[in-house]
């Protein structure tokens, strides 16, 4: 069964700058991981000419869907080029639910709250693929210790 990865990151104020999601998804798909990207659903709510599009969305439903997706995932990758209330809440929730959380952030000073609720904080998107390979290999070897060379699930 393929592992499920939730892509988290800032949306509000970055509606026109979501390319990082495609980069993360490409790495995950290369490693045969399934991807949940809430932006694919939420971008339909965002009309580029609307300044406060989120006022037209039922907050409870919006958040409930994201948290349900976070609960279904095996692993969360959080891109944090700047602080984001939504991304921080998603990573906190995922960690409380026992999920693996990997943060990618080039920030000079990452909050201790983010560090404490992450399994890894990477400084560069280029580190993600190798880190995921190590995580997948460790998880696989836990269940199949004689298969050391298999990197995958």
Notes on the protein architecture:
This protein has six helices and five strands, in the order βαβααβαβαβα. The relative contact order is 0.17.
What is the number of independent domains? Answer: 1
Helix-strand category: alpha/beta
**Unreliable stretches, pLDDT < 50, 5 or more residues?**
142-153
Number of strands: 5
Beta-strand residue fraction = 5-15%
Order of helices and strands: EHEHHEHEHEH
CATH fold-level label: Rossmann fold
Q: How many H/I helices?
A: 6
Per CATH, the architecture is: 3-Layer(aba) Sandwich
- Write down the overall mean pLDDT: 81
Name a few traits of the molecule.
about 150 residues
Question: What are the SSEs and their pairings?
Answer:
Elements: E1 4-8, H1 19-30, E2 34-36, H2 38-42, H3 59-72, E3 75-79, H4 85-96, E4 100-104, H5 112-116, E5 120-122, H6 128-143
Parallel strand pairs: 1-2, 1-3, 3-4, 4-5
Quick summary of this structure?
The chain has 153 residues and is α/β, with parallel strands linked by helices. The protein has helices at 19-30, 38-42, 59-72, 85-96, 112-116, 128-143, and strands spanning 4-8, 34-36, 75-79, 100-104, 120-122.
């Amino acid at each position: 069964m393929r592992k499920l990865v939730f892509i988290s990151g800032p949306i509000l104020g970055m509606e026109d700058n979501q390319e990082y999601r495609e980069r993360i998804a490409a790495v995950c798909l290369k490693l045969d991981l399934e991807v949940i990207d809430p932006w694919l659903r939420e971008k339909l709510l965002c009309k580029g000419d609307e300044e406060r599009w989120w006022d037209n969305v039922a907050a409870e439903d919006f958040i409930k869907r994201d948290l349900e997706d976070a609960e279904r995932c095996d692993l969360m990758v959080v891109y944090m080029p700047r602080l984001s209330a939504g991304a921080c809440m998603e990573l906190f929730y995922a960690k409380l639910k026992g999920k693996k959380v990997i943060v990618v952030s080039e920030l000079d000073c990452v909050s201790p709250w983010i560090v404490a609720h992450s399994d890894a904080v990477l400084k560069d998107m280029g580190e993600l693929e190798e880190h995921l390979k190590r995580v997948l290999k460790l998880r696989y070897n836990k269940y199949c210790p004689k298969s050391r060379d298999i990197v995958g699930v």
